[in-house]
Structures are given as C-alpha cells and as structure tokens.
Specification:
By secondary structure, the chain is mainly alpha-helical. The chain has ten helices and no strands.
Amino acid sequence: MNINQYQHIFTYAGIYELLTGPVFLIAVVCSVAGFVFQVKRFFKATVRVRRLGMRESLSRRNIRSMVKNPGTLLRDLRHTLWAHRPGMAIFTTVFHILVIITPVFLLAHNVLLKEAAGFCLPFFSERVTDWFTGTILLSGLMFPARRLFYKNVRAVTTCSDLVLLAVVLFPYLSGFLLYHQLLEFNRLLMLIHVASGELMLVCLPF
C-alpha cells in the first residue's frame, strides 16, 4: 500500500471535500432517521395513553369544545409556561425559530446550494442574518445563566444539557467569526464550522 495515495485526504481540500460530501450525507441520513424515530415514538406513546383510558372520542370532543369555546384553551394554558413565565416562553420560542431559519435562509448557504443543486431558497440580507446570529449567541449566554442561578432549574440541569447547548451554538459562533474575518486561522475555522454544523444536524431530532 502506497501511503502517498492517501496524503491528499489530510490536506485542507481533502478534509473539506470529505466533510461536505460523504460526512454531510451521513449527517442528513442520521437526522432524518432521528426525526422518523421521534415521530414513531410520539405516536406509540399516544396509543399507550389511549389504552390506559383516554378514549379517542373524548379527545376529539375536547378539541371541538376548545374550538367552540376558546376559554377552555385559555384555562388549559394556565398550567403551562406561557401563563407562569410568558417572557421566558416567548424568548425560548424565538430562539428555536431563529436556530432553524437562520442557516436555512442564509445567503452563503444558498450560494453553495445553487452550486450543488442548481437552485436556491429565498434568503435574508446579511445584516438581518447578523442580527439573528447575535440574538442566538446572546441567548446562548442567558440559558446557562438561568440554569445556574435559578435553584429549581439548576436542580434538573445535567452536563448533557450544557454540552447540547454548546453543540447548537458553536456553528453560529464559528460562522459569525468566519463571515467577519475576526480570526487568523480561517481554514481551520471553516472545517470546524462545517463539522460542528453536521454534528448539530445529527443531534437536532434529540
């Protein structure tokens, strides 16, 4: 075996090609499989609850009554985060929406999509994307702070929660640094950005 044949794999171009080719396809397949697994798990749990005594006709009747009488829905919302901490509920919802839409409708990603597939999606302006990324990163500071300083939240916080938050935030931080050329090692940062984005894609369903 001639090792010189495989030296190109360890160059920047070789690693980038590997990450944006086979590794990206594996990440997409794992992400889709994870979503399918979670949907099946959700419906299995729903069936199990029905078998324990919830009748389907009863649940349908409840849905119809909520549509006819919005007051029923409002009473149910009293027991959710929207009633107890509406600010935190809005903040969390906005964070999750931005995490999803920012990379999908990013100009740079759609340029790559155009080159690879011949089409692109609508995209936000670079200034808007900067605001979205900044909001995501600031949120990333607030979530661990809340877990550290609120006793009831700290009690249920595990190391995996903080690791998962870091996995979500790192592609946005590395992408922001790359776009604004704030660091010197841009090639290494690009590889880290692509790899961390694919890791987030795999973790997304979970």
